[in-house]
Amino acid sequence: MSQVVATRSIQSTLLSPVSGSAHERAQKFLKPATFSSMVFPPEGNKWSQIGFRSFSISARKSAPVEVLPVSPEDDSKIEERLQHLRAVQQFGDSSSGMWSKPTVRRKTKIVCTIGPSTDTKEMIWQLAEAGMNVARLNMSHGDHASHQKVIDLVKEYNAQSKDNVIAIMLDTKGPEVRSGDLPQPVTLNSGQEFTFTIQRGVGTPDCVSVNYDDFVNDVEAGDMLLVDGGMMSFLVKSKTRDSVKCEVVDGGELKSRRHLNVRGKSATLPSITEKDWDDIKFGVDNQVDFYAVSFVKDAEVVHELKNYLKSCGADIHVIVKIESADSIPNLHSIITASDGAMVARGDLGAELPIEEVPLLQEEIINLCRSMGKAVIVATNMLESMIVHPTPTRAEVSDIAIAVREGSDGIMLSGETAHGKFPLKAVKVMHTVALRTEATIPGGQMPPNIGQVFKNHMSEMFAYHATMMSNTLGTSTVVFTRTGSMAILLSHYRPSSTIFAFTNEKRVQQKLALYQGVCPIYMEFCNDAEATFIRALDMLQKQGMVKKGEEVALVQSGRQPIWRFQSTHNIQIRKV
Asked: Pyruvate kinase C-terminal domain spans which residues (predicted)?
């Protein structure tokens, strides 16, 4: 065992932004003045097949070592590493480690909505191979039989796949306000009068039913009524006991069962409807991994759902969809109560001024990051690819912004549910996310994230393991039965991959959503050392690490594995 000695210039040099090409950056980093020290073990100390260096939190005298300063010329492999750096990441370093290899595994996860275009075995397999990490079931469409088919196919894929896993997310319909059925689409022009009524079964060229009995009470003269998030708009002129008379502002073709919003207002409906409860029970029976709960207005809704899940013995994470005006004042308490949030920009942009949406997106991502919660950016990310084989340049930028802001996941809706090019959409999202990640400076953290988590030893270890991994340029290996330590590490955003080994299939599936986590199922044995060696051997055989590469092995968490409750440690092991 030998103590690692490093110069003080490592962290300051590598955590600051550097301009110029990757070659210039590499040359700057590799100057002798800023280089680290090489540690040689004392004479006669033989390395075993897997050598390791242990780091202790407490200060203690290290074993005698011979410390020799080195320059780039002293490392025979430097040219090979620089060539790898130039080839894979010409425009940026993905980690802060001086000798780290560029990260080529995508960290930001992709959520795909499964629908008529993708609900076959062949398409789900192809989506998974193209980059899908989470399969989303939109309960606003389809029935339990169609969703059961998709769940069974995803589970079949997970059972057969050796090195990949797909999580299942059930997205509730929520208290949506929709127009009724029309015999045929109605074309409306600006300035034309049109009426919405709470009477059932009305569908004429100048009047249509609404499925919400309090609709008349919720709107006032002067309100702006939006159809499908603003594809059409109506100005409320007056109302009667059962009808709302409007003037068409932005016309178009009105079809059956269109989604209605009132600008700046939310419907006075419960966030979880009777249909939602039926769908939630369906999710419990099928052991889905996540619920995405629509139109959450306050934390009480989340507590109610979590209490129900606890009574059922169901371990399902709750993702709140931020999409109503009423949720914004309660944002902090809602996210605190949940396991994560989804920025549902469609309805959010309908109920609030559209110029507020990008600001709220950044605020929600930052809030989730600071609180250690997962966050997904959704809606219209590649909308044009529903009908076109290539995206707009603005859509590409939208993906890149979500990745740069630190989102755990980015979501496809109609693009994969009923679009013409679902596989191409996933590939575009994968490519853009991977390319963007390659330009993000490694080791950066929000200023307060280190303080937020320091209320438990595990949080402190996750923080320092991330700093160590970033400094040395190593991947991180963690063993977990609950997933909590892997999730903690994910929220600190280490520069390299987090390989999370678990002996629980359900935990493996949940971890598929979290940024930077590669969840791997493996049976644990009672011998810690044997398990460590087997895990590193598995990573090497699958090409995830190379012989001679170092990894940071973290033993911490609220539930001890192969250690005492009071003992936590980080090791650096050589494969």
From this structure: 462-555
